[in-house]
Model the fold of this input.
Amino acid sequence: MKYKLALIGFGTVGQGLCEILINKKTELKENHDLDWEVVAVSDLLKGSVYCPDGLNVNQLLDLVKSGTSLEEYKPKGEKAPCEFGWDAVTTIQNSNADIVCELSYTDVKTAEPALTHCKTSFKNGKHVVTSNKGPATIKYSEMKQSAEKYGVQFFIEGTVMSGTPVLNLAKGPLAGCSISAVSGILNGTTNYILTEMEAGKSYEDVLKTTQELGYAEADPAGDVEGYDAMAKVIILANVVMGADISAENVDREGITGITPEMINDAKQKNARWKLIGSVEKSNGKIAASVKPKMIPMDHPLAGVMGSTNALTFATDLLGDVTIVGAGAGKTETGFSILSDILSINNLQKRNES
Done:
């Protein structure tokens, strides 16, 4: 099947997705019967272009890499004229896209502008795939219901552990199991900091390094105070555990209180500190938290070091199942968007068979 894609936001994730689509075009067609064309890109800083007959993605990437506006795009052989300068909402409303890849920069407190982009997509009969945590954290139930109302899909694999398929794992291979708890390392920055502190470095020095490496923002509170992990815990609770919780329901504590003495004490106890996000379901009630915990060395999460993420599902039929992988990255998050596009493709094929 062939899909027309509109990319709302053309930063790291959007470019990573396009590189994957180009490199795997033949494989996707042969192995998954998936064909595609990017018909629109709208980015607040990089410009906007829409060509109903499809865009030359290599040219788009070249423009961005050279620091040139997307509005300098040169159509080559397109039958219909291209449009330039449309904002995101106009692009969603007026383009002929089947799938909107919502990849814009979003305020996690309000979920905007991604929330508006998703709602507009649904109303216009377009599927949404996104790595934006905002809409899934703040309005997941509303987004899901709205997508169902308009007969489209809302997929969010990239919101929790980038391309590492935790939501797909819960909905797919673990379907049939009852999941009573989910817990894991959901923020690579804090895991990197704790790893380096265990090696003898100070919190302040490691934090500075993470900012230089691009792991942490200039204001690192979202990572070190546990807000990023909290958003992912909310998504896990609502998507995997069928809850309906918000930030007020999560007991949150970051890693700023972890001292070298605490690190050494853990070593003496054959354990190490990790920032653990967890959701537990008992007697129909949900308990959710983000807290530093001393993890015994024989636990699977104890061996997850550096910026790597990991998640353990407690199931009734398989016991504990742990998945380890990247929690961020250009290619990794781009892959999460591709995996959601493939999920839509598989659903469409089943519906037509």
User: Anything to note?
Assistant: The first helix runs from residue 12 to 23. The chain has 15 helices and 13 strands. The chain has a mean pLDDT of 95.
